[in-house]
Every structure is written in C-alpha cells, then in structure tokens.
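User: Can you help me understand a structure? I only have the sequence.
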Amino acid sequence: MTLIEKQRQMGEEEIIKELCSANGLSYEKICQDGTGISSLEVFFSGYPRMVGLSFFPRLSKLIIMGQSVTQIQGLEHCSVLKELWVAECQLKEISGLQNCLQLQQLYLYDNHISEIANLEPLVNLEVLWLNSNCITKTKGLETLQNLKELNLADNAIEKIGHTLDPNSNLQILNLSGNQISSFKELTHLASLGQLRELGLQEPQSEPNPVCLLCNYATHLLYHLPQLQRLDTHHVCSKQVKDAAESTVLKKMMYYSMRVRMVQRQLAEAKSRLLEQRARRLQRPRDRIHMLTCSLKMLELELSELQASGRMGRCRDGAASPLTEGSGDPGDNNAVADPDQEQRLLAKADALRERLQRWSQRMEQAEVQYKRELKLATDRKEMMEHFLVLELETVGNIRLEEGTASDTWFTSCYDLLLSRFCVWDYTKYGISGIKIKSIIRIHNRALRLRFENKLHSLLASKDPHFFSLNYKRGLDYLFYVPDPEHTSDKNEILHILENGFEPADHYKTVGREKAVPLSNSLSGAERLRINSIQMKMVKNGQDLHSDPLPYKHGQLILSKVFLGRSMALKEGLPVDPSHYPKAHSVRSNNQNQQNIYKTAPKGEMQCSLKGPSCCDCLQRQTQWFVFDHELVLPEYLIHFEYLIQDGSQRPLPNDGDLDPASDTALASCDLAQDGEVLAMEPIVKPRPKLLSLDEKTLLNVARANVLSQITVLNLHGNRLSKLKEISRLTALRHLTISFNELTQLDDISHLPSLESVDASFNHISSLEGVRGLPRLRLLNLAWNQLSRAREDTNILRKHAPALLQLDLRHNPWSKCDSVRMLVLGRLRSLTHLDGVLITEEEAAAAVQVAMGSRVNQACLVANSRTDVERPRSLSLLSGAQLLTHLKPSPFDSHADLPPGWISKITALNLDGQGLTRLANLDKLVNLRWASFNGNELSRVEGLENCSLLEELSLDNNCLSKLEGVSQLHRLSRLSVSGNQLTSLDGSILGQLPCLHFLSAENNLIGSLHGIQRARLLFELYLGNNIISTTRDIYNLKALTNLIILDLYGNPLLEKLENYRIYLVFHLPSLKALDGIAVEVSECDNAKDTFGGRLTTDMVAEKLGHSSYKDITELTMQACSIRLVDLAPPDLFLNLQSINLEHNNLTSFSGLLFLPKVKALCLDHNHIESILPRQKMTMQMSNRQMLYHKVSSSGYGQQCSNKANRDWDPGDSAEPLMSSLEVLHLSHNGITNLANLQLFRLTNLKALFLQGNDISQVDGLEGLHTLRELFLDQNRIRILTENSFASLVSLLELHLSENRLRELTHLHPLPQLRRLFLGMNKLEDLAELEKLDILPSLIELSVAGNPMARRSLHRPVVVLRLSRLQVLDGLLVTLEERTRAELLNAEAQGSAADMTLPTLLPYISRASVRCMATGSLLGQDVLLETPHSHTCKKQKPGRGSHSEAAIQALRGGGTLLPNTHKILLTYPEEENRFQSQSGGSKPPHM
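Assistant: Let's start by predicting it. Here is the structure, written out as tokens:
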C-alpha cells in the first residue's frame, strides 16, 4: 500500500467516523450495526466525500446537506435505497446511481449540475428535485414514466419542447426562475394529462419572462384544464375554467374569421391577376387563332395539290375544281405550276415561326401570372402565419400593417428611402424603389428581453456607460437573410417570433460570429442579389433577361444598441474573443465608396427626390453585433425595385399592361404577321359549309362513293353538326377544326377512324362519343372542356387505343391536376399536349390514381385514434390537427390488430382525388373527418358514423347536403367551394348540435332553411349569389349567431347601408364580414333602421312576400317610426292599413300606395302628412336623423327624387286620391293647418279626437268630407274659415271641447248630426244659432251647463223644427206639441192658439224602444269604435248625465253584446265596421 493510499484510507476513516457521529453510531461497531441501519443524515460539514456507505446495505434513506461533495459515489451496495438527498453541495453531474434501481425520491437541488443525465435506470423514480442548478435543457427524463413530481426551478431553461411528453404521470411541476419566454413552450405541457400543480412564478423564485406577458393564466388554464394549483393559487373553480375556455374559444373564432379574410384577399388578388392574364393573352390568342386558321387552310390546299397534281385557288387567276363546282376528280383543265408546292411550303413554315413567336408570348404571360400569383400566395401564407402566431401567443406577438396615416409608417418609409442610393444599383438596371407594405412587429417577450439587457448594461459599473448617453448608441439597421448561409427557409418568420439567433449560430452556418446588419439597403441586399445571380449563372440563364427574381424583396428593420463599437481590423475575423470589450464591430463598405469616387459629379443623385431623398455621400457601414439580445426586430418591410428606363428591354407584358394599348411591344410582331400573311400564294376563301349531305361529302372528299372516303378535311366551315359522317365507315383521318361544334357524338361508331382534329371549336363535353376502337390521335385544343374526369372516363372506355391527346387551352375547373388525372386514367397515352410522357411521370400518375380510392392502406396512413381533440390554439380542423401533430398509430408493414378500424376517431383524406366515399361503414367511432380537395359529388357512406362531430368537405363537387342528416352530433360542417344552390332546412333541422357552418364559394341564392340551425355561432356564406334582403330575415331566428360573413354576395352592392342593416336585424352579431361590430355601429343601426316599416318587415310579419295579394295590413304597437314600402307598385291591392300605437311623425311613406282607402294612425306622433320643410336653421336631433336616412318615412324611396322631398309651400297637388277614411286620434296634434289635410281631396271621414287642437282650420280642400270627429280637444271658438269648404259635411263631432258659443256654422248646409256634449255652453241663445242648419236632424249638448236640468229641450225642440234626436232621445210629436204649448202659455195666448192635428199619445218608454229603428225614414248613426275614448268620471258629474253621455256620445247606441256598429248613409260606400276583438281598420 502506497503512502497516498494510506493517507486516503486514513482520511476516509475520519469521514466515516464523522458520519457515524452525526447519526449516533459507534464507529467500532459499524460492521455489526450497519446492516440494520435504514436512514442516515449528514448536515452542513464533515462529509466531503460519499464514503463508508457500503457498511449500510439496507439503507433506504440518505440525506447529505451542505457538504462539499462533488460526486455521487459509494452507492454500489445500497440497492434498496429509496430516498436520496445530495443538496446544497458541489455536484457538477449526475452519476453513480446505476445500482439504485428502487430509488423513488431524488433531491439534488442547489448544486452545479448543467445536464440531466444518467437517470435512465431509475424507472421507479417518483420525485426529482433539480432546482437551483445550471440546467439549460430538459432532456434525459424519457425513461422516468413513473415520475410524479419534478422541480426544475431556478435554472436556465429556455425551451421545453416535447421532452416531458413521456412523463405522462407527472402531477407536480415547478419551472419557476427559468428563462421560458414563449407561450408555445407552455403549450407542450398539454400532453401531461395528470398535471395538477404547476409553478412558473412562485414567490421564492424569479418569474419566467412568459409570466409577465398578457393572458398568461388564461393560456395555461385553457391548455391545462385539469390544473388545480397555479403559482400557489387555487384554480380548481369551474367558473375560472369556463371563463378561460370561453375567452380562448372567442379568440379562435375571431382569428379564424381573420384568416378567412386573408384567404379572401388572395382570392381577390387571384381574380385580378386572372383579369390581367386574360388581357395579356388576348392578343396572342387572337393572333394564334388567325395564324392557325391560315396555316390549316394552307395545309388543306397543299394536300389537295399533292393529291391531284394541280394548283389550288390562288390570286393568279387559276381556280380549283371545287371553286368552279365541278367536283370531278378527272377534271384536268387547271394549269399546273411546279413552283406552287414550294411556295406553299415556305409560307407554311413562315406561319409556324409566327405561331411559335406568339406561343412564346403566351408562355411569358403565363410565367408572369404564375410569378405574381406566387407573390400573392406567399404574402397570404405569411399573413396566415402572422395571425396564427398572434393567436398562439395570445396576442403577445402582434403584427400591425401600417398605412400612410400612421406616424410610424411615415417615419419608417422615409428612413428606407433615405438609405437607398440609385448608384448602388446601376449595374442591375434599377432606378428606384417602391415600398409595398410595412408591418410593425409587437413582440412583448423580445422587447422585455431587449429592455432588460439594456438596463443591465446601463446598471453595470463600467464608467463608460455612465458617461455616455446611451441613446447615442441606438440605431435602426437592416437585416436581409443570406440564401446561401441559412438553415431555415423561413428565417424571417423565425426572427419575428424568437428574435435573432446567438452569434454562435451565424458562425455554424458559415457567416461571421455576430448578428450581421447594415445601415444601407444595398449593403443588406448584396448577398441576396449575388446569390440569385449565381444561381442564374449556374442554371445557364442570362443575367439581363429577367430582373424579376430579385425585383421583390423584404427586410427586417431592427432597433439596435451598438454600445461600445470598434472598427473591423483587417485580417482579423469577427469574433467576440478578438474584440473583448466591444459590443459591436463596424466595417465601411469600400466598394460603395469607390462608386462614389468614380461617378460623375453631375450624376451623384438619387432617383427619388424630395425632402427624404438619400444622401449619396453617406458612408455606408456593415455592423456586427455580438449579443443578439441587443437587436430588437421592429418592422418588416416589403419592397419592389423599379426598372431603369432604357437600361434593358423589359419583359413583354411586364406588369399590368393593357394589351389594347401595348402597341409598342407588339407593333413589330403585328407587322411581321402581316408580311407573312401577304406572302404568295394567297389562298382564296372558300364558301362556308353550314350542313353536310351526301353530295357535299363527295364533293369535299373528291370521291365517287362514301365508302371510298378515308380522309376528310372540313376545316374552316360553320358546321355545328356532322349528321352524315357516320356513313363514312372507311374514314381514317378527320379534320373538323375551326367550326362551331359543341359535341362529338356524330363521329361515334367509326371503326376505322384513327385521327381527329377537332381543335378551335366550342366542344364542352365528350358525352355521346362511342365506338372508336382504332382512334390514336385526338386534338381537342382550344375548346370549352371543363370536366376532365368525366371526359377522360369516356375516352378510356370508348377509345382504348388512344396514343396522342391534345387538351391545351381548355377552361378546366382544376387545371393544375388535369395532366396527372388524364395520365392516370388513359394509360395507353404516349403524348399529352404535345409532350412525350416519361415512365416516371406515368408511374406517378398511376400511383395518384390508385390513391384516389378509400382502401386499407389509405385508412392506415391517414387515420388517428386519439380520444380527445388536442387543446391547441390551431385553426386546423380536428382531423387535420391530429394527423399533423402525431404519426399514424398503425404499422402498414405489420399485421393490423382485430377491430383496428373501429378504433379510428380521426380521418384526413384531403387531396386524395376521391370520387366517392366508400368502405367507411365500420368507422363507428369516427369523430373528426376531412375530405377537402377531392372530386366528391355526393355525401355518402357516413351513415354509421353517428359520433361524427366535425366534417369538412371543401372544394369538391357537391350540389346537395344529402347524407349528413343522420349525423346528429355534428357540430362543425364545412362545405365551401362546392356547387350548392341552397341550404336544405330539413337536413339542417336534424343537426341539433351544429354551431359552425361554412358554405363559401357556392351558388347559394337563398337563405331559406338556415333558420332551422338555431344553435349556429358562426356562419360563413361569402361569394355566393344571395341578393335579397328577405334572406336576412331567415337569419333572425339564429339568436346565438355572433360571426356572419356574406362578403362577395350581390346583396352587399344592392342593399344601401348593408352593414348597419344587418347589425340592426341581427343584434347578437360580434363580427360581420371579417370586421368586428363596433358599439357606434350598433347605435347608428338603431338610429337608422329602428322602427322602419319595410317590405321585408311586412313579409316577416305575414309569412310571405306576395305583396300584391295583401288587401289589409295591421302593424299595431311595432315601434314603427318610418315607413318605407317601396316600390309602391308591390302593394297594388292594399286598401286598409292600421298602424296605431306606433311612433310615426308623418305618413309620407304611405303617400304613393295607389289604392289605400282606410288609414288608421291613432296613437302616434303625427305632425304633418308630409315631412317638415328643410330649414337652414339649426335642426333638432330627430330632424337631423331623418335627413340622414335616405329611404324613410321622411324620404320615400322612389325613382323620382322630387317625391321624396315634399315642400308644402311649393304646390298644393292632391295626395292619396283613393283615401276615404283617416284616423288621427291621440297624436298630440296642436295645429290642423300644419297637417296639410286639405290635400286629401277625396277624404270622407276624418277622426281627430283626443288631440290638442285649439282652432279648427286647414280643412279648406275637403269638399267631399262627410264626417268630422274633433272630440276631446281644446277648441274654444269656431272661426269663419273653420268649415268654409265643408259643403258636404253630414256629421260633426265637437264633444268634450271648450266651446262657449256656436258661430260660423252657416257653411254647413247639409249637416245632419251635430255633437256638442261636454263643452261650456251656458246660454240657450247659442242653440238658437243652429237654425241656420236646415238639414240638422240630430243634436247632442248633454254635459253642457245649459243642459244640467234638461230645461233646454223645449227650447231646442221648438227652435229646430226638423230635429229628430236630441241628446240621444227621440223628439216625439208629443214633446214638440208640449213645447209649443209651453211656449204659447209663456206668451199668454194659449187660448187663442191654433194647434196642429194631434197624434195619439205615445209614451216616452215606447219612444225609447225605437232608438235602434228607423226614424222618419232616416237611418240612425250609432257610435263608432273610434269616435270617443271614455275618460274617468269627474267628481260632481251626475250618473244620469254620464250614462247619457256614454250612450249618446257621437250619436251611438250601445248594444247588449257590447258591439258598436256604424250604420252608413244610403249613398255612402266605404266606412269602418269594427267588432269586439277585431283589428282596425277593417276590410274595405
């Protein structure tokens, strides 16, 4: 034993003695007693190494605290150890535990461990504490599947990833005091289904940066609904969980809506690009059409010349036999020309060259279209990524697109222009720059990191930072990724989310060990442009042929703290170790300086002039920042270089050029076309054939019998049918190009036919083509074919020998997949569209065709068996999300377990080319399914999938929703991009759980049936053909609807104030057409449409829209304040309208209804028939509102604008000529003149009771008025003009007013009934004034002071000799005689008085019984339901008089059944008749 070993042994003995002493054991008896010890503890000091543990083989618990232990050792014999504490020591790694297989608790906190390692054998471990170490990654825990508690607090962990996914039994996790800054990292914890307690910012530790972000708790509670404790707070309350769930779901709906807006913007951009493409292609198409027609005509002429040996029809005077009409092959009269064939061939070659040139022009236009479409698609994908990123980070990363009105946008715009110099781009032919968009980056996590880093530098003890103003070290610099040195294709997106990578990353990809930045655009763009040029050279492309590869660019503008900066030392690489005290290194761009020196002095200017033009003498600098945390990305800028004029020839049709005005580019080509067409020989036009018969066929084919014709050329005619062609049984070659054919069914059953040229026709389908067994060549280019699958099926069945097929220039519905579809079905083809088919291409097409059926392999590869939908902030459907996140649980190379298909819960068969759904009957547990982008025409095969919750069928060929009615649990249905024409309510009514429906880009013209889906939250119907406002009322039943999208429907253009109209009728909406509904919009909607009576409202009330069948309209108590029944011709038969108890102030909206006879507007606020005249003075709020509304009761929507703005002072034109009965009681009317009633010239009955009228005027024009009701007003006196024009008035009601005298009644010669009850008439002499009314037969003055004791009756009876009824009682002959006797006695001459012949005595009782009968041949007018409204009996009013008033008011009689009847005059035709329980006004 060496001396060192002896010393070591002596040292270990001392340590063991200390161990024994600390645990009360005897060192001498350790060998005997050690085997019975199960627990040891050593605290604070005296145990520097783990030795002597072999004496305790049954040790189950070991605690070592506060020691200087640097390594775990000596546990080889502690095989039953279950709990181990080595805390607050000096451990640097985890080791020595390989024999502790029963270990359940391991506490290694407060050490110097930097990596979790060597824990794989500890499969029974349940508790692991590694807090307060130096750990940066959570790897190494994969085998600890029984782990229940993990403490990793106070380390340096930034990312979690999926490293904890295997620890599915984890219940307690503490990650406080780390550097986790992304919500995405917390999302990974959702896989820990047993997690109950989570700590990220517990009091004893510093919070993670992510805890300082908004919505931190909401995010966690949504992804971890099973949590009971979060950061020491109890979160097990159901209310808290529901609030988080609701918040996240609303945000997901909101961002789903915004993503749809982005997709819609792409669709609009694509539509614009297609229009531009069509304009670019128009001239090439026309020229190709013309040149091809000429070429085929030459070929026809050449073939005839070669066949007959004669010359065709040319302008040299010779004519072909066909032109002269002989048709005889033996005719040899034509003069032969040996050079004619050569001239024809030369001209044909020239035409082919011109066709090739125009074909190149078409290809260039297609390339331009695809390039621009790719830019639009890339932008759409980027915006989608931004929105998803914003959703996943719960708004802590937000991208804001700026506009010219934003201050920051202008500043950023000016900055970029100031750092652009045209001389940097002279060699590229670039003369300027156009900024297309600027997006502001709001990343809270990166900003907090930047500010914290900056504050830590400023708080350091370095005196340099105390003396230097730190703002001088801030600058804005550009960054553009280098395509040659990047490991991430989406580097810019990664930077926006996570910031710049550390300096070491740039070193690993071949760049300097720092973040490379530049203060000039050219310096930032240099590497990108050079890379693109090198790639073009490598591919053999001309550098000056196409500037577009680098025409469009994007860069990041970052806020940078340069700190202490040093100049780059020549020959010394950029590395922090070479510049130890520097935060950044700068390098001047010498090449740019040389450009400045060599450029002419007069040309040192930027192409962009103005106050913000670049300073070309500015020194451009390249910066290298060592600390990536000092670089904060703030703006993303998209720009486009402008091509220098004259520097190079631009691309044909570059940009949005109009072909009609693009003469400069095409004039040369057009001139060359003209030269070629003018070449000799010039073929004379042939007569056009309109139909075929036997003679014509023989003549064209130059044959004697039809059975001899093998070649037939019918090019360039006007044939729409080929009826006689079926008789040509020997026909082998057929040319029918440039005709007007729409089908090819006439060429069926030609057994010898080998080639057909049917190009340049109007063929839309191959339906009817049959029996072409030998057909090898078929040219269908330049037609109208659109259904590739159906047409190729026909060819596969009826043309099995087909080798060459040309389908170019047809409007296919899905042109991108046509080639693979055709190759997969027509496997005999060797050439398609003039291109040779390779073996690889054919094999790939066959593989695609085989995958277009639902088979076992398809199900295995695209299915999942998860029971729950992942709680992920993703906008993908359930099936798409599951197949995206996890691999298939089935092994396609192994035997599948029994019943495997019934375990499938998710199925994603997007883009498989499916034509029908089959083999799905066993998917009884299917919950999420997606069949987007297929060729499905029916929904079938899902009858057994009763548990299905989500179904996506976008971009198929569906025309009906049949097949989903049995999916009673379906909550989300997407059928966008199909051919639906309606939404079947009978099917939607069987989906009680449906809350999401997307049917965009269909052909839906009506929303009838949608009201059956009452639980809908989200409804997307954009880009359909919905055009009527009536459809909006179908949505009113959807009381839960919060998101509606109708963008792209004709309704938006047709309906004025469309947006607020929908907001008004659908008050539950929170978002409309992708835009949130603001409170101000709701208020505006209420102001504009609140109380508006429209045709749609009528249709909703009546349940139909047959307006011409409506004769009576009743809309009582509907809060109507405006009438807008336009156009009035819709209500041609409407005669009676009842709008009582509403808020109308005028009824000008009713003025143009042609046949209205009765109008009831009781209990409104009528101020005038017409709206008030527009005043220049200050208007009230209500008047301002009326003037804002263009189609309201104050502005009837009519074709004639003059009819909407009536001015009472302009004319007195009569209105509503058919109106006979008008009810305006209880409207608060104070001035009759303002009503303009004089314009209702045909009015016969007018009810104005219960108003505040004090003076009777404004009735001058009512010459036909027969009844006037003015009861319950404030009339004090009758003026001379009160009844001046009422010559036809028969009945006048003035009860319950304030009349004291009766004057100016003389203009009423035909007045028969007058009611003056409850006024203030005191003097009986006033009644004597009524003798000027010669026709008066009924009078009522009950309730006046003069009538309190009925002393007025004799006077009235005596004075008014024709009076028949007074105060409701008949005036009998007895009463009249008695009155005369009394009068005679009063005069003292009763004895001498001569009395008329007396009738027998008639009792008063019997007279009363006659009240309802006829009196002297005249009808008795009884009370109308609108004549009076009973008031509460006033104190002091006698019961007798009150009863008389109630019975006699208005001359009415109360019948026993409480019905009130209005008996009309014999000559009257139209009056109201109302029974109890009936509505007003009645049928006319």
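Now, to help you interpret it: The first strand starts at residue 39 and ends at 43. The first helix runs from residue 3 to 22. Let me know which part you'd like to focus on.
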